[in-house]
Amino acid sequence: MTRTILIIVILITNGSVSFAQNPLKAENDSIRKQAAVNNIKGKLSSPFGTAALSNFISNISLSSFLQEGVNGKIELHGKFKYGWTGGLSIDQKISKVDKEASPFSLTGISPGTTVQVNLQKMLWKPTFDDLSDAQIKIINDAETEYAKRNNIADARMVGLREISINGTEKEKRMALEAFNAASFKEPFFVNAKFGFTKTSFTYTTDSVNLTQASDAYITPTFSFSLVKAIGSGFNISGYFAVSYSYSENYKAADALTFNIPFGTTPNYYSNTLAFGKPAKQISNLLTAEFRKNIFINNGNRNPSNIAISPAVNVDMNNKMLGLFLPVYFIRGADEKGKLLDGLQGGVRFGYLTSTESGQFRSFNKGFIAQLIISAPLDFLDIL
Amino acid sequence: MNINIKTVAEGCHVSVNIKIQGQTLLNLTDNDEGSVNLFSGITYRFEWFVITALEAHLKIEAFVIPENDGFLPLTIEKNYPPGIQDGNVFLFTLNQLP
Q1: Per the confidence metrics, is the pTM higher than 0.90?
Q2: Residues A92, A99: contact at Cβ < 8 Å?
Q3: Number of CB pairs < 8 Å for A and B?
Q4: Which residue in A13, A284, A285, B74 is a FRET match for A171, CA 20 to 30 A apart?
Q5: For each of chain B's 98 residues, which pLDDT tens digit applies?
């Protein structure tokens, strides 16, 4: 296993070296342009040539991350043709005193390690098919006027969003109407994730001799989600998602401190141990979530912005239903007090009830309202 | 005659289509390149779309071989903030070669 990983790492390292020497990635624009032309021409003149594997390599990345006392992570990420994206991550939780992670060793996977594989397919076929050639001609004529007025050498370089910002009122309306006429502008994503985690526990079931036992478990996780991005004009303002996740894990029994006589002396020593075997927990969760940034405009997150993220969660194992309506309106700040773009505080209203027949809670009993401070609310992590 | 297109997408997704009467002759996505054979005297559509997740950089380069006044070499290069979508469409007709 270790040998296989080493071979993969060496192959990818070689790929990175050739990537660095690729003139298509050169800093100098003219070199890059010439290389692009040569590259295309080369493919055209070769038997069976057109675009093939060159981008396959450049779209693969390998990265590592370590946060002392938290975790160490290695990620292999690949972006392939036809909207496919895939990744492999190896993540090991580490203790406060550890300065390195070692998720694999000669004996196999180390405890605290999670290995996860994910695959995503983006379905996105935007088109202006609903516009007739005559309508496109009118738009192109207006763009030519716009380009002339703004000293743009080639009107074909202009985007409709640019006109919607800098054009006359008439041009702005035309640009927005033209863009709104495009169909299937926002992508749809299908995601699947599979992983496993190794955990080990030390515990005792012997209250007389406190004989210690150790167990290691490998537990699976699986999730599947469907996500549709939501747009408004030239903005991506949120998404709608449904997801299912299954996970198994083991939870250690409560730790107890035992005071034990030291031989026949009047002294005692203490030993803290989990008493009892770890308990297996299974989670079967179905979630539907709508996330929308309400006043977003041309990518500028207005300081007075408000976001909502209503969600329905069904915990099939514990037979619980949760309805939540978080309203985010407080911006995050960094450690120096500088306000950040993302919203991360607000209030959350919710209602929790059992789904078992006859055990529904009344609204008064199930209703919750909380002040929340969360990780920055992200609308674009789906993209 | 061939139209050759190359896309560079950093922090975004891009889609470029060459179409005729609703039929897609060529579709390119992120960091892609490809070509398709075109005929003179026929009107084609060049469509491009972008959707951004991060601070993004987009570059679309297109040229026709052999050179043709009906489609001069084109470079669309733009920077975008996160959470934006954009695009455009134009018509072109290649001239008969002498």
Answers
A1: no
A2: no
A3: 145
A4: B74
A5: 999 999 999 989 999 999 999 999 999 999 899 999 999 999 999 999 999 988 899 999 999 999 999 999 999 999 999 889 999 999 999 998 77
